[in-house]
Write a structure and sequence with these properties.
The chain is 41% helix and 12% strand. It is of the alpha/beta class. About 7% of the residues have low confidence. Helix 2 crosses helix 9. It folds into two domains: 214 residues, NADH:ubiquinone oxidoreductase-like, 20kDa subunit (Rossmann fold); 135 residues, Irregular (Cytochrome-c3 Hydrogenase, Chain A, domain 2), CATH 4.10.480.
Length: 354
């Protein structure tokens, strides 16, 4: 389907009501139409499987064609740009020489061991390979904003897992955080990037949490909005994959992962892991893959028991404790109702005697 610019902006404005209760995208659509100017974006890839790029390429509404023609001016992207060789690299050299402000998107972690030799992009005028580490440093100095896209760029991700032979680090450890906005996820969610890029250009940095993540996307734990939360509350846990129950004991990372997956799912809202019978693997959390020693499906060390403030228990005892707590709550509730009923009858009898 081909949209005109005006049709696309109408769709974007209308979709905002379904996507963001804050009216975030409505403001974006209106401002883009007034400015009629695309956002210069330079997108570089380091230690990545290009999953975040693929995620954006597969976005449905808006399509990637709409994004490139109506929201951003994609100056450089190793995977999708038509240019190659010197013609391709001149885009980066020109960006370093120019005073034009742009948004730098960094996908993938940054190898730092041995001066970053394990990942290079192009060559200098003497034929020497230029490391990804060097590009991140130089381009970030010229950029107005820097977006760390995906878990590898945000936290280090899989390349930074032990034994981390390349010395992989997140973008924040290379350039600091003054210009940085983090969009974790493996892969990052398309509407996160589209919304953030437009907001950065039109309104500046949105409200961020302590980890430099936009609150509009990462303001709540997955556990808070999970459709299996009622099962958790009553201690009803799945014993195997595919069961329609809480999957905490199967290693679900929803209680420690901030993201909006329960609200918007994946594949244009068709499904998401929990509904498909798999626990959340915490792909947007700092602990994803190796950084804390927890495997993808290993249980969290402990969790809060619902209904009992301050009480935390080990994962292997959690089902028993929650079940007991739930049963205790039911018994206490029933006993309370019985005593209240008994007291009421006694009061009624006293009134009759009088």
């Amino acid at each position: 389907m081909n949209f005109s610019r005006r049709d696309f902006l109408k769709v974007l404005g209308g979709a905002s009501a379904a996507i963001m209760s804050t009216g975030f995208l409505t403001k974006v659509a209106e401002a883009i139409e007034k400015q009629n100017k695309n956002i210069p974006v330079i997108w570089i890839q380091g230690q990545t499987d290009a999953g975040c790029s693929e995620s954006l390429l597969n976005t449905f509404s808006p399509t990637v064609a709409d994004i490139v023609t109506d929201i951003i001016s994609l100056r450089f992207h190793q995977t999708v740009m038509a240019a190659s060789g010197h013609q391709c690299m001149n885009v980066l050299f020109d960006a370093l020489r120019s005073d034009e402000k742009f948004i730098l998107v960094v996908e993938g972690s940054v190898p730092t061991k041995d001066n970053g030799v394990y990942c290079t992009i192009g060559e200098d005028e003497n034929g020497k390979p230029i490391t990804f580490l060097e590009w991140v440093k130089k381009l970030s100095e010229k950029a107005q904003y820097v977006v760390a896209l995906g878990t590898c760029a945000t936290w280090g991700g899989i390349p930074a897992a032990e034994p981390n032979p390349t010395g992989a680090k997140p973008v924040s450890e290379i350039i600091g955080t003054s210009k940085l906005v983090n969009l974790p996820g493996c892969p990052a969610r398309p509407h996160h990037l589209v919304g953030l890029l437009a907001h950065l250009k039109l309104f500046g940095v949105p409200a961020l949490d302590a980890k430099r993540r936009p609150l509009v996307f990462f303001g709540r734990l997955i556990h808070d909005n999970c459709e299996m939360r009622p099962f958790f509350e009553r201690g009803d846990f799945a014993k195997g994959f595919g069961e329609k129950k809480c999957m905490y004991l199967l290693g679900c990372k929803g209680p420690i992962t901030y993201n909006d997956c329960p609200n918007y799912q994946w594949n244009t809202g068709v499904n998401w892991p929990i509904r498909g019978g798999s626990p959340c693997i915490g792909c947007a959390s700092e602990s994803f893959i190796g950084s804390t020693g927890n495997g993808m499906y290993m249980r969290l060390p402990e969790a809060k028991v619902p209904g009992i403030p301050g009480l935390k228990v080990k994962a292997d005892k959690f089902g028993t404790i929650v079940g007991a707590a739930t049963l205790g709550g039911i018994v206490a509730h029933a006993l309370g109702r019985f005593l209240s009923s008994k007291k009421k009858k006694e009061n009624d009898n006293v009134k009759e005697e009088k």
